[in-house]
Specification:
This protein is an alpha+beta fold. The protein is 43% helix and 20% strand.
Amino acid sequence: MTVTAEKLSHWVSPTLVYRSIGWDESREGIGAGFICKRGVSRDNVNLVFPRYVLVIVVNGRGTYIDAGGIEYPLSEGMFFQRLPGVAHSNFIDPESDWQEYYIETGKRLYDALRTMRIIDSDKLTGRIRIDAALTNKIDRLITQLKTAGETELPELLNDGIALLIDCSRRMRKEPVDDNDAVMLAQACELLAADFQSPVNLADFCRRHGWGYERFRKVFRDRIGISPGKYRLRRRLDASCELLSAPGLSIAEIAAVLGYSSQYEFSAQFKRYIGIAPKFFRSGTREAVRR
């Protein structure tokens, strides 16, 4: 059968697009779309999709079933995630006039965004705040991906990541109120300052009228790691800055950062950064170990 351009136009929607980026073997890229599925009941059954997709339900009702067989009801104002390489199913109430937006990425980009907590793969479904600002951004990305030349695609990739960051903020189950925002900002400032002095967080919370256990829970939920690991991360960030600038020896940097010895600093730096401080500074002799 010959497929004419007229027939093809019925199958390829102007509101669906995926653009691959990179070398010939690359499967990375960015995609977006808007789909109406009136009358559809079986959307995907035991689908194992190669890419990541965030689906935003604009209208309709349905069900998402994860790899373990657990069912999650879907309705307007919710999202669900298709994780690359993970089996799942989703069904639609055919009478509910289902409409969805989606944003799509390649697996390697998904892995990077997941590592940075821009994508939360543990939360398969949930509520998301949908408004004209969000839908306009997705519509604009669809249009730009359709018309962009190849050299423009890297910039649109940035737009797609920014859109996923926006979605991540919109799907947080507990919005951070003003008191929580102040608490987190002050705690992060404390944890990132004066590494030579120990931090007593319980006393810090008590002086500010905060419950210590609630503080730890809010901190981990919003920052993604415990306060102790956050301090370690900022400490190592500071060590990289100091190692990149001349003037201080490695022993002096260890002392500035509050380590008991150069050896303790070097061991921790190599464990977390993957390379010894002296090779990080010189850029020779030893490669980063993955």
